[in-house]
Design goal:
About 0% of the residues have low confidence. It is globular, with a radius of gyration of 24 Å. About 50% of the residues lie in helices and about 5% in strands. Strands 2-3-4-1-5 form a five-stranded parallel β-sheet, sandwiched between helices. The chain is α/β, with parallel strands linked by helices and about 450 residues long. The protein is built from 18 helices and five strands.
Length: about 450
């Protein structure tokens, strides 16, 4: 296998983020382009989605793959590309305390996490909300002053389309209050407006006292405000909003109540219907989940009949043929060749993109793959996380002591299991419980 090494010089910040993340078995937030391999068709399908969303449509995709197959990497890669295309992006993992539906603040907590993780091209690591609003206000101010027009009136005119959406009037009111505080140098009110948009207010009384609005973003409003923020993103000059929700498997594995699962699935159905029917503009929804969490007829998405119908595979797509036009994208397994290229690129990251600084020769890469086949089994390339984590550990030792013999290191390791993952994907399902309350008479 002759693969030319990367020639791009890799920055220290990117190198550190990539290697630390891979060593811990998580997805790096920067530098993904240096280690992306395979899945050309799947990436192409998502890029077409972004083009459609940029034109004012909406899209929803369920990225499905087994534990360790690279779902989170794939989702983050698409988000990185979206930033380059002018989108705002955000991401959050579903947990039992952060989910799409809840009656105790769980949905509001998910929305708050999404707003905290909001990223823009200027601030790709998150916490971009205030900067997005400030740049938009600055742009409108410059245009209004150049045209000798009133800035506040110009802002209200630009926000008027939001008032046609559910909860749009209060959202526009808070943004207007933010502008007035911006103009007056009132940082406290600006921060209160950001808190409101992040769903950090828990009482309407407090919101009315600070901002003059009589509503807050609560559990029942989360999806409406995602649509609102997507509309605002386009008003603010961005291509749209990409929302990446991973660990959807929590809904099937970790929620004990069937009623709670169905309530969350109902929100997913609403999102799916809106995007497929063209009722939303400028919004790309990406969900990461597993085969079991999708197809389990008792607990998974298929347990909700309407979702089972809409997410069913194309019956004509057989014998390795994948239909990428539907909402479900199943990640194809990496081939051994793909994994080899991935290890080449990780080696390149260690060397800052300089082939003269490689810590492991090509012979060592091939020997490592043979080692993986012996210790991890023949499916090592299908879920590359374990192989990648161990490879980073191997090359890290060679970096710390270049006199070490890689042959001796490989020969000294037998089949040693990694620490069990705490991910919901790897955890057994929580036993079903009765939705009725239990009590006894004294």
């Amino acid at each position: 296998m002759n693969v030319a090494p990367q020639v791009n010089r890799i920055k220290e910040r990117e190198r550190t983020a990539i290697l630390q993340s891979l060593r811990a078995g998580v997805v790096p937030r920067v530098g993904l382009q240096h280690i992306q391999v395979g899945r050309k068709a799947e990436v192409g399908a998502l890029l077409k989605d972004l083009d459609v969303v940029k034109e004012g449509a909406a899209s929803v995709r369920f990225v499905v793959g087994r534990f360790g197959s690279g779902k989170s990497f794939f989702l983050n890669l698409i988000s990185t590309v979206a930033l380059e295309k002018g989108f705002l992006t955000t991401r959050a993992d579903v947990t039992t305390d952060r989910r799409l539906h809840g009656n105790g603040g769980q949905a509001r907590a998910l929305f708050a996490e999404l707003m905290r993780n909001l990223s823009s091209k200027a601030k790709p690591e998150g916490d971009a909300l205030a900067g997005v609003i400030d740049r938009w206000i600055g742009s409108i101010t410059s245009t209004a002053v150049a045209n000798d027009a009133g800035v506040e009136q110009a802002i209200q005119d630009r926000l008027r389309p939001l008032q046609d959406l559910v909860s749009g009037f209060d959202f526009a009111t808070v943004l207007t209050r933010y502008f007035k505080a911006y103009q007056a140098g009132d940082s406290a009110t600006q921060q209160n407006a950001i808190r409101w948009i992040r769903a950090e207010y828990t009482t309407k009384t407090e919101a009315h006292r600070d901002l003059g609005v009589r509503s807050i973003i609560d559990d029942a409003d989360v999806y409406d405000y995602l649509k609102l923020f997507a509309a605002f993103a386009r008003i603010a000059g961005h291509a749209g909003l990409v929302v990446n929700v991973d660990e959807l498997v929590v809904l099937s594995h970790r929620l004990a109540s069937a009623r709670s699962r169905d309530a969350n699935y109902e929100i997913i159905l609403q999102m799916l219907n809106d995007c497929l029917q063209g009722s939303v503009a400028g919004l790309q929804l990406l969900f990461g989940t597993t085969d079991e969490a999708l197809e389990d007829r008792r607990r998974g998405l298929y347990s909700y009949e309407a979702l089972a119908t809409r997410l069913a595979p194309n019956e004509f797509a057989r014998d390795g043929v994948q239909d990428l036009s539907g909402p479900v994208i199943r990640l194809n397994n990496l081939t051994p060749e793909d994994l080899y290229v991935l290890l080449l690129r990780i080696r390149d990251v260690f060397a800052y993109g300089d082939s003269t600084k490689y810590l492991l020769p090509d012979e060592g890469l091939k020997a490592y793959l043979d080692h993986c086949a012996r210790t991890l089994g023949e499916s090592y390339f299908r879920t590359p996380r374990d192989a990648v984590t161990r490879f980073v550990g191997l090359v890290s030792l060679l970096e710390q002591d270049p006199t070490r013999d890689w042959r001796a290191l490989l020969g000294s390791v037998e089949q040693v299991p990694l620490t069990p993952s705490t991910s919901a994907e790897a955890a057994p399902p929580v036993p079903e419980v009765d939705d009725l309350a239990h009590f006894k008479l004294g």
